[in-house]
Amino acid sequence: MPFVSGKLRIWTLLDIMKEFDAWGIAMLLHHVNDLNGYLWKQCDSGHRDVSICKQELDTLVFPTIFMALHHAEKFHLKSTYDRVWENGPFNLNAKIGITCQQCVNELTVLRQCIEADLEKLSFVQIDPEKQKVVFNLPLSWQTIWDAIPLCKEDCNEAFYCYALERNTAAVFHGMRVAEYGLRQIARKVGVRLTDKGKPQPIEYATWDKVIQGINTKITAARAMSHGPRKNKKLQFYSSAAENCTYIRDIWRNEVSHTRKSYNENEALGILSRVRDFLQVLVDNP
């Protein structure tokens, strides 16, 4: 009995964006049915109480058990796991010797366990185009992740939310990604912040305070005599700071203060704008 491999990507809500091998589960049930049918014929042929030979155990029974164990472990199919783990009844019986009728009984119970476990899970199907966007993230974001590694988690969360049609949440995470760019600009121009007379880490300051600190630094630097290269850098960071102000006023404040919700086109457009913003910072260290 050949085993067919393949993948249909579906995601479980119990572990967001965890790949669920729906095709593999379908094949497992298919093999359970096929093996059951084969053994029923053996029973009807007078071999009901005959032990299954080693060759058939190795080529038919154990591969089905191992396939069931693989899916049970990966996707927390508890009832299924209890039947097929190393010391589970199906596995133990197969190891010490099992008749055709006993194997039919075990396969029947196994299928019931698989079905019962699947009934307890919830699934969400991802739109194929959104799936492509998520799977292709490294192509468009890797250079940013390499330069600003802390933004990767929120970047992934933003696109996971987009794929799951939680568009306003996607924008929220997108603003967190943008904030890493804001912090980078602040550090590049040497912003030093204080709160109540004590030094304040940039991470703990508001967007307004950080942007104000950036603009103050740039204004002070422009008052000094610099060459064309330095002036070009100042102009770049000034433009980047203006971009941060735009992001804050148009999206960040709106989503943070529950003033607006976003649809999927808006969410994807905003995430693309954030990526472009960070990419410019990465390309101009």
**How many beta strands in the DSSP annotation?**
5
How many domain modules? 2
Helix content range of the residues, please? over 70%
Low-confidence regions: 1-16
Distance between the termini: 59 Å
The tally of helices reads 12
Descriptive overview:
By secondary structure, the chain is mainly alpha-helical. It folds into two domains: 9-124, no CATH class; 128-283, no CATH class. 71% of the residues lie in helices and 6% in strands. It is built from twelve helices and five strands. It has helices spanning 22-47, 54-75, 78-84, 89-96, 100-119, 128-135, 137-147, 152-163, 167-188, 207-222, 228-256, 264-283; strands at 9-12, 18-21, 123-124, 193-195, 198-200. Strands 2-1-3 form a three-stranded antiparallel β-sheet. It has a two-stranded antiparallel sheet with strand order 4-5. Strand 4 and strand 5 (198-200) form a beta hairpin. Helix 7 (137-147) crosses helix 12. It is rod-shaped. 29% of the residues are buried. Mean pLDDT is 86; it is low at 1-16.
Summarize this entry quickly.
With 285 residues, the chain is mainly alpha-helical. The chain contains 12 helices and 5 strands. It folds into 2 domains: 9-124, no CATH class; 128-283, no CATH class.
Task: Write a concise keyword list for the protein shown above.
285 residues; mainly alpha; rod-shaped
Structural topology:
Elements lengths: L8 E4 L5 E4 H26 L6 H22 L2 H7 L4 H8 L3 H20 L3 E2 L3 H8 L1 H11 L4 H12 L3 H22 L4 E3 L2 E3 L6 H16 L5 H29 L7 H20 L2
Antiparallel strand pairs: 1-2, 1-3, 4-5
